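re the bet — no i am not wrong, look at it urself. input seq straight from the record:
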Amino acid sequence: MSGTGEGLGKVEVRLKWDPSPFGEAPRHLDIIAAVYPADAPYGRPAYTVHYDSRSPDGTINMTRHSQTGMGFGFVEVMVLEFERLSEAYGRVVVGVAIHQTGGPRTFDDISNVGVLVVEKYRQLMTDDFAEVAGSTAATVAEFSRDAGGAWQFRRMIQGFDSDPGIFSSEMGSARH
């Protein structure tokens, strides 16, 4: 958990990867956030946010999206504004899924893949998915409210073998 007394404010999750080799189908990765009610933090998500959606109140959204990676650093960015997120929500799990068009792909098949989580200028975590190289999707971060209502961060690298649709429903379950 992060050690700040006030908890988290505005956090960015940034994703990078290199494009596919010439002649191969594009490699398309997505950041996905699942938001859970405070009274059921391991149940079904209240809602999910990904490349073509945002949270109902605008506190979680994609500010940058790529379908090919492009190789220019962090090309996909999700912003989470915890200081504005309703008290009805108590947990947010963020993950990354690989679209499976063009055949099965794992993180091992993606060049220069990496994720960075920052709050302002403070780096909360960075990862290259090496721990979950054989997976098609992975959670990367868990944000939860502490007893005082402040949002805290926990690194949460866990691999899954599912497509983006199924992954978004199972990524925050208690069994992983």
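see?? The longest helix spans residues 164-170. told u. also DSSP finds one helix and ten strands in the chain. so pay up
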